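Exam revision sheet. Question 4 asks you to relate a sequence to its structure. Input first:
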Amino acid sequence: MSLHELTAIELRDGIAAGRVSSVEATRATLDRIERIDPTVGAYLSTFSDRAMQAAETVDRRIAAGEPVGPLAGVPVAVKDVMCTSFDATTCASRILENFHAPYDATAIRRLLAADAVLVGKTNMDEFAMGSSTENSGLKKTANPWDPSRVPGGSSGGSAAAVAARMCFASLGSDTGGSIRQPASFCGVVGLKPTYGRVSRYGLVAYGSSLDQIGPFGRTVADAALMLKVIAGHDPADSTSVSEEIAPVEDYLAKLNEPVEGLRIGIASDFNAGADPAVRQAIDRAVDGYRDAGAQVVEVAMPHLDYAIAAYYVIATAEASSNLARYDGVHYGHRTPNPADYVEVYSKSREEAFGKEVKRRIMLGTYALSSGYYDAYYLKALKVRNLIRGDFVRAFEQCDCLMMPVAPTTAFQFGEKVDDPLKMYLSDIYTIAVNLAGVPGISVPCGFDESGMPIGLQIISPAFSEAKLLRIARMHESRTDWHTKKPAAVERVTA
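Answer key, structure tokens:
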């Protein structure tokens, strides 16, 4: 078996046992990036020298019998929305193209403390605003299964890098589905943890009450390992939840133990909007659980239909506030030869922000403006509470909810980019999870007639990631969808 076919855990264990070195694995990963990424475009930057030095250090420590971290020697990637002190943090935007943060995000520090080998930073929709990675201000990322299609977004680069075997795991961020949807489109596992489970310190903010960092992996076990590394309270993040309230568990310890007496909730009316191929794949996955002894119950979630509207008021309002700091003065792009300070601000933002970012800033500013705050923003917050209530009542009847990740599989480049409403509806099944703050995961569950991957979304109560991962593993253990690899990419390497 080639090195790139190993899972993150298999590679970690192989390095620890001396069957392979981190230097070998890192060099093979960097070589694969060099060969494949011109076709996929997952990476905005790579850290060849730094990565090789980190790999050499891990190998030396293992040879000396020194203790190493749980990701020792494993090449991983991170979405370029997390601050790193050792390379630019661009958020795929021209306004931050040359910005270098003075510190590392907490999630980055925890990866490095676990002895992971960070090989690069991945492409994304600018400031995480998008569902296809077409809104990147810096480059294009293609789906490894079909380069004519999008990888999903906004964490499209992180999902594509894992799917194309150009890293063994990665981190993304999820504000309205930005981990789960690209995971579904690219045929990998993607986990959005509970809001507050993972520190947001050093994550460049889009929607502060919605953003959450989470992992991509080829398997549920890889995602569980990554979550264990990055989860936990952080005094630097006021939204990070104390471990006394929500302790971080060993997510791998009981991963292979089925959940006894599992009750699965289905909102049939809501799920009906998906394409037939997607619905059929979800139904087959649910039937697999039923065959394993799970009980399937119908649940009512009457306010989910309002999630899109509420989300795009709340998220854009928060974006309008968060992105006001990019003013052409403090950092980032500054227009040359401005006539006055007004022009510094207006022209810098006009020149460097992309079309979708401008659209969302304007929407959010309007929603927060005098005379419209109560009509839009306050009303959206009330709807958010109603949606939270739907989840609370549903989880009184079941252990988890199952639904599609997206209504379709990965679509063609240009198919939706000129129709914002059509694009926004791509997130209809994921957005409510962020509004409620609960965890959700996407696991591969089939393919459509074009050979594009389909993801099953599983949602559970707040801070129940251990159970969520076990439920996801139940599906994975009975299927082989997660073992499939993109033929389009493999042709490039042949």
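Marking note for examiners. The chain is about 40% helix and 10% strand.
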